[in-house]
Amino acid sequence: MAEFDVILRNGYIVTEKGVSKGDIAIKGGKIAAISCIDQLKGTAADEIDVTDQYILPGLIDTHVHFNEPGRTDWEGFETGSKALAAGGVTTFFDMPLNSHPATINKDAFDLKFSRGLEKSLVNFYLWGGLVPSNINHLQELSECGAIGFKAFMSDSGIADFKACDDVHLLQGMEKISELQSLLAVHAESQQITEHLTNTLIRRGDTSAKSFSQSRPILSEIEAVQRILTYAKLTNCKIHIVHVTSSEVISQITAAKKQGVDVTVETCPHYLSLTTADLAEKGVIAKCAPPLRQAKEVEMLWDALRNGEIDIIGSDHSPSPPELKEGDFFTAWGGISGAQTTLNILLEEGYWKRNISLETIVRLTATNPAKRFKLFPQKGILDIESDADLTIIDLNESFVLKKEDLFYKHQQSPFLGKKFRGKVKYTLVNGKLVYSSLKEKIR
Ligand SMILES: [Zn+2]
């Protein structure tokens, strides 16, 4: 009988600490042996030759909206997780809103969790929501296994997920701190965005430029400053999602130096698309906060290079095509990106800006695992770690086509873009869930 279930032969093994050539053996869903000097001895039921390919810890996407249950016609665990597997993602955290009911109490959590178990191809965790009406449900959500909580400081765009005013934020943060959990925050100022939106719509200007002006960087700065103050006051761990600007990141870095337990996420679209793309591609590239100018994108890469960004999440937030119509103020705000996170980082980071594979692994796997207490079970290639792996060919290039996308709706602002670096295989708990050779998902 074979000693191992799977052996990956002759690949380049990448961790946040370095790259070395070797073999990896898997047994019972875990990494059982790694050999970088001699060829790994032993036999396996399955051997995959990965010569000249790179083996990375599977990505952990801490920010997706799969909308199930309730809006499964927008996405769903099945289609969403297939897209992730094809993109090299082996674990995701689903946000508490856009699904219906919103994940703001135990019943909603249990319902969503059972759907995920039934349908997801990859590992997953669920975020709980913090809304003004559910402070009394935070404990039960934490006990159910919520990976953390999510709150909005401005309108979420979803009626059953209300933004928190300052009093509810403070109450929620006190409770979350007591639960030793973490609060992820959509940090844009309701006052600023509402005021500017009303002013611009009154003028009748619903262009891309006007939409961008309605949600300026200053709106993020004001909200982030406030939530950092509340974090100091309540001792609550926080995570600022989808930050678009290095100016915002500087504030967060300064707060870290003062001892605030805060981490920051940005998304592939803020690292690769600009206000010019929004005008050119249209509402397919609409998101909130909005895309920024090209110089901001470069400054965001500088912040990433300096180690000031902790995590990259996709903020995959799809909708049916009919909601992606209308003007820049009325169309659904959300970009479909779950499948292309690694592709963007390889093309725009590794190839164009000399960002190392180690850095990409740190931002997409190791740091998320550490921040959410999944390390060293996940986020690293080591003996006894979960065999969640993605294998890529750095030199293979492709142009993204509609039919490549596994989303429920084959929409993406990246269609037609050329990428260098292709996901060849994805393994979850030691099982092959995606192979580009077969061009299908098992
Ligand atoms: Zn989101």
UniProtKB/TrEMBL annotation:
Modification after translation: Carboxylation allows a single lysine to coordinate two zinc ions.
Amidohydrolase-related domain mapped to chain residues: 54-433
UniProt keyword Metal-binding present: yes
Molecular-function annotations in GO: allantoinase activity
Pathway as given in its UniProt record: Nitrogen metabolism; (S)-allantoin degradation; allantoate from (S)-allantoin: step 1/1
Membrane-traversing stretches: none
Pfam families referenced in this protein's UniProt entry, alphabetically: Amidohydro_1
InterPro entries: Allantoinase, Allantoinase_bact, Amidohydro-rel, DHOase/Allantoinase_Hydrolase, Metal-dep_hydrolase_composite, Metal_Hydrolase
Modification N6-carboxylysine occurs at: 150
Cofactor binding, note field: Binds 2 Zn(2+) ions per subunit.
Keyword Ion transport in record: no
Family named by the database record: Belongs to the metallo-dependent hydrolases superfamily. Allantoinase family.
PANTHER family documented for this protein: ALLANTOINASE (PTHR43668:SF4)
Function: Catalyzes the conversion of allantoin (5-ureidohydantoin) to allantoic acid by hydrolytic cleavage of the five-member hydantoin ring.
Protein's UniProt name: Allantoinase
Annotated source species: Metabacillus rhizolycopersici
